[in-house]
Amino acid sequence: MDKSSLFHQFVSFTATVHQVTHDLTQNVTIANITPLQYKILEYIKVSQPVTPTEISDCQHMSLPNTSRELRKLQERNLIEKISDTEDRRKQYIRLSIEGNKMMEEAFACIEERFLQLIQHATQDDIKDIQQALFILEQKVFQQKI
Amino acid sequence: MDKSSLFHQFVSFTATVHQVTHDLTQNVTIANITPLQYKILEYIKVSQPVTPTEISDCQHMSLPNTSRELRKLQERNLIEKISDTEDRRKQYIRLSIEGNKMMEEAFACIEERFLQLIQHATQDDIKDIQQALFILEQKVFQQKI
DNA sequence: TTATTTAGTTATCAAATGATAAGTAATGGA
DNA sequence: TCCATTACTTATCATTTGATAACTAAATAA
Asked: Which class is domain B27-109?
């Protein structure tokens, strides 16, 4: 087995992953949120509390643009900014009650669609899928370049 | 094992996939190509010949916008349009020599980075990865909603 | 203390992308 | 033949996103 043909399998796989995640997340954002804002909220949801700099790094956007989007999200009461007591330059961002509710609903919707995707999976299938996810995470995706 | 905790593992996994593919494809597009144009070329590369309608459907963009981007790509001699002899409304899009060369280089660059990612994988690891990709494709990603 | 660095903001501009209306030309059905 | 549909184009406008300069305030190093 050569690594080059594994590459082709990998490319095809990632294309499918992107396709499926697009389908799963399509139209979950009922509120008037831009795709970028959704991605930011999603990141805050799973990593809160986070600083603007962290968002900037992880979402590959400049700090000024991050600041702008966070301001819009705060104006819509979806997030809260809490300044660090130690270092008063720093801020911690977390979802507001409203923002959290919105993201919970979004995730519930995605989960529902995901469960449809694996509705025919047996208990053994589930175990296989879990194992496969684990192997890929460990042997491919958590490697550093 | 319940399906709900599998969902969380899945979400985390897809986030990692997006992260890694972003890193792999970063800065591969030396030519002055927008991200959208790159994605279109990538799709043409692996699926050619394709019609504008197919591109429109698969890339989730309107036909007018597809037409606009294809015009730009043709102006830069990266693609060719061939009209169908049967149905003269239809067109087939394929990469030009130049466009193909560009995409070959892009893929080579991505492959190089991918190989770095799995440089420490043994022959057994490769087999495991292959098997994991196969299982996920089959049991999760190829399911229809 | 003073200078430098860090964290974030505000403002502004340009480019990319999305949405929509109106059009052409070919096809296919009634 | 006439009408509806399909495939695609052109034009235009709005929105989103990216890039950059100039700024404030706090922390840290010299």
From this structure: mainly alpha
